[in-house]
Amino acid sequence: MCACNCDCNHDHDYDHNSVSSTVTSNPLIPMRAKVINIVQETVDTKTFYISTLDGEKPFDPQPGQLGMLSLPDIGEAMFSVTNKGEKHIEMAIKAVGELTNALHEIEVGQEVGIRGPYGNGFPLDYCRGKDLLFIGGGIGLAPVRSLIMHCIRNREDYGKLTVVYGARSKGDLCFKEDLFENWPKVPNMELFITIDKEEEGWDGHVGFVPSYVEELAFKPQVTVLCGPPVMIKFTLPVLQKMGFAEKDIITTLEMRMKCGVGKCGRCNIGSKYVCLDGPVFTMEELKDLPPEY
Amino acid sequence: MLVAQKAKLREILNALSEEYQVAVPVQREGTSAFELYRDGIEVMFNGNTSISPKGMFFPQTEKMYGFKTVKNTTEFVSLPVEQGKRLLFGVRSCDMKSLDCLDQVFLTKGYIDEFYKQKRERTVIVALGCNEPGETCFCASLGLDPQKAAGADVHAYDLGEVIGFEAVTEAGQKVLDLLKNHLREQQFALPPVGEFYLKPEVAGVPEKLKGMFESPLWEEIARKCLNCGACTYVCPTCHCFDISQDVRGEKGIKYRCWDSCMFGEYTQMAGGHNPRPTKKERVRNRFMHKLNYFPERYNMLLCTGCGRCLDVCPVKMDITSIIQQIKEAK
């Protein structure tokens, strides 16, 4: 539980009041922050590095937690925090709507609003010491990456790290620097990258993620997956066939959100709120909820 | 019991206005709502207001903060907050219960909604007991006492020519102390409560709904719903909100406003996916939320039996008959 004695789900110490301490302790009011770096991941995805105006980390998210990012004159939306550094947090954002398209127009130095961290994050205690299989599709690697980076930073605390990642084409692969330069150097870490269709200049695997996972025939372990609904839908039966227990299949969900703190109503699945009780759920937990996500 | 002549209510409210900003139920061109009291305003005693007092705590539109965007800079500006003590006179049992529901949402589970809390904390509530249930009322079936509203600071009773007062909390006692010169002690028994026309049996419904997510009932109920959202606006417990902004050049105001789970955009995601794409899912979510999800999360129904949704629905959707249909469903 939190040190503040609230009845929230955070199993770590964090100060709710730090969330927007520069303006007020009101959880709905963002703090002023700025974009200090932008990485073009694919043609429609960029990673934004965000710091406070005095160059500090806006908040300290756990892997899998969320942040509400805003260009106040356009809107505000919830994104997973894909990584954190000493003095910044990173959000990988695909241009799909009004706000995300506006974000793709901004340049380094742009000031933004941010509030968070929100949600439960990945169950680190449960994952510790185990071999982990990460499965991602497209931009779905973004939330999973926060845990991969955490495991790399704390390499001795986790077993073997295996990543299966697929995208439509070579150009659609996010985090190329990690995939092709950084992660291959990490001890006891294996990468399996696939694209949907053959293309020139690609000599890697071709095919969809679910069948690739089946082909690779992993032994049951803890798996963390995130991707488009169709990838999840076809990967789950494969994992179950391979003998993965429902409690060992972990995913992270998205929903439209406005408040981020379990009040505004819309992100519910049954009696759970994705912003507060999620976004991370095990298959075992999802089984008890209505299939409405 | 402390009592005052009803004819003296004006003097009482005038006296309270010296200490509090007072709001009372008022009839206004075919509709009724809580309004700020002014000397001489006629207080509505007959039945409940068509608009619930939830807006006194959770306004239909509420400015949250200001901002200024110049070139690539962004500044946030806090807005002045109205201060001072308020007093609501004439809140009915159903609407008092709705504040209990809203308290759960806005004040628990790790995050406190400061906008709501600030208004709640500066408000003293004088509840007014109901003797004669309205045609669409069913609070008693949900376990409420129509004459004594749980959670109020003062209970007021309509005793015909006189109004009876009983302080329940310390804040309520302060209110009655202010009225010392207007009240006298007299024995009065509360009149019997009239017969309720609607008596839905809600026992077992939350539990039964747990297994009814895929029931054909939802399709059937949804068929006549227009998804107009009127029920959600008049509901004293509905609390969903949207956050948006008014922008004028470099300056803007971020506000929140009531939203409705009946609208498709409510859950529409930027990428195109909508987890509740049709009327069926939206209607199901509304009734599941009121009768199953909310009880699961907060251990109480998200319905208080005020009957406003029955009054306002253009196609006569009736939550009491839906409760009945849930009971009868196989």
Keywords, please?
heterodimer, A: 293 residues, alpha/beta, Rossmann fold, 7-stranded mixed sheet, 29% strand, disordered N terminus, B: 330 residues, alpha+beta, globular
In summary, what is this structure?
The complex is a heterodimer of chains A (293) and B (330). Chain A has seven helices and 16 strands.
Topology:
The complex is a heterodimer of chains A (293) and B (330).
Chain A: E1 31-42, E2 45-52, E3 66-71, E4 75-80, E5 83-84, E6 89-94, H1 98-103, E7 111-118, H2 124-127, E8 132-137, H3 141-153, E9 161-167, H4 176-182, E10 189-195, E11 205-206, H5 209-216, E12 222-226, H6 229-241, E13 249-252, E14 268-269, E15 272-273, E16 280-282, H7 283-287
Parallel strand pairs in A: 8-9, 8-12, 9-10, 10-11, 12-13
Antiparallel strand pairs in A: 1-2, 1-7, 2-6, 3-4, 3-7, 5-6, 13-16, 14-15
Helix pairs in contact in A: 5-6
Chain B: E1 2-5, H1 9-17, E2 21-28, E3 31-36, E4 61-70, E5 73-77, E6 86-91, H2 93-107, H3 114-121, E7 123-128, E8 154-159, E9 162-167, H4 170-178, E10 184-185, H5 205-209, H6 217-224, H7 230-234, E11 241-248, E12 251-258, H8 279-298, H9 308-312, H10 319-328
Parallel strand pairs in B: 2-6, 6-7, 7-8
Antiparallel strand pairs in B: 1-9, 1-10, 2-3, 4-5, 4-12, 8-9, 11-12
Helix pairs in contact in B: 6-8
CATH C-level category of the largest domain in chain A: Alpha Beta
Estimate percent helicity of chain B.
25-40%
Main sheet properties of chain A: 7 strands, antiparallel
The whole-angstrom Rg of chain A is 18 Å
Euclidean distance between termini CA atoms of chain B: 51 Å
Oligomer: heterodimer
Which two chains have the most extensive interface, and how many residues on each? A-B, 56 and 53 residues
Approximate strand percentage of chain B: 15-25%
The SSE string of chain B, one letter per element, is: EHEEEEEHHEEEHEHHHEEHHH
> Unreliable segments of chain A (pLDDT under 50, ≥5 consecutive)?
1-24
Find the structural class of chain B using helix and strand composition.
alpha+beta
Tally the beta strands of chain B.
Answer: 12
Radius of gyration of chain B: 22 Å
Main beta-sheet annotation of chain B:
8 strands, mixed
- How many discrete domains of chain B? 2
Helix content of chain A: 10-25%
Number of domains of chain A: 2
